[in-house]
């Protein structure tokens, strides 16, 4: 991942990971603030859903699988976000959220 002129430029592995998370085709280049804001939004929605199923559903193998998948989604969002901030830092810049 690289940061250039306010944009995040993702590597092939990051594009693949984000495409699989979103289940759609992902562009290699996004405005940094937009990408990081969307990752925060997705993570918050996933955490909310995780709390909901943990509190409502009875224990089962399917519930366990759902919880594991949601935790993986949360971790992937955090990983991509951390890489974005690191890329900006490596470029000698910072990302300011609006």
List keywords for this structure.
98 residues; mainly alpha; 3-stranded antiparallel sheet; 3 helices
Task: Describe the protein.
- This protein has about 100 residues and is mainly alpha-helical.
- About 65% of the residues lie in helices and about 10% in strands.
- It has helices at about 10-20, 30-55, 60-90, and strands at about 1-5, 5-10, 30.
- A 3-stranded antiparallel beta sheet has the order 1-2-3.
- Strand 1 and strand 2 (about 5-10) form a beta hairpin.
- Helix 1 (about 10-20) packs antiparallel against helix 3.
- The model has no long low-confidence stretch (mean pLDDT about 90).
Shape field: elongated
Strand order of the largest sheet: 1-2-3
Distance between the termini: 22 Å
Biggest sheet, in brief? 3 strands, antiparallel
Count the strands? Answer: 3
Mean pLDDT: 89
Strand percentage lies at: 5-15%
| Structural class by helix and strand composition | mainly alpha
Give helix % range: 55-70%
* Number of H/I helices: 3
Show unreliable segments: none
Order of SSEs? EEHEHH
Radius of gyration: 15 Å
């Amino acid at each position: 991942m690289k940061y250039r002129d306010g944009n995040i430029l993702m590597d092939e592995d990051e594009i693949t990971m984000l495409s699989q998370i979103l289940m759609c085709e992902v562009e290699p280049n996004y405005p940094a603030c937009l990408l990081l804001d969307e990752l925060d939004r997705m993570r918050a929605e996933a955490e909310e859903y995780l709390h909901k199923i943990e509190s409502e559903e009875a224990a089962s193998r399917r519930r366990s699988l759902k919880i594991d998948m949601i935790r993986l989604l949360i971790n992937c969002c955090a990983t991509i976000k951390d890489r974005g901030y690191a890329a900006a830092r490596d470029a000698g810049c910072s990302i300011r959220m609006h």
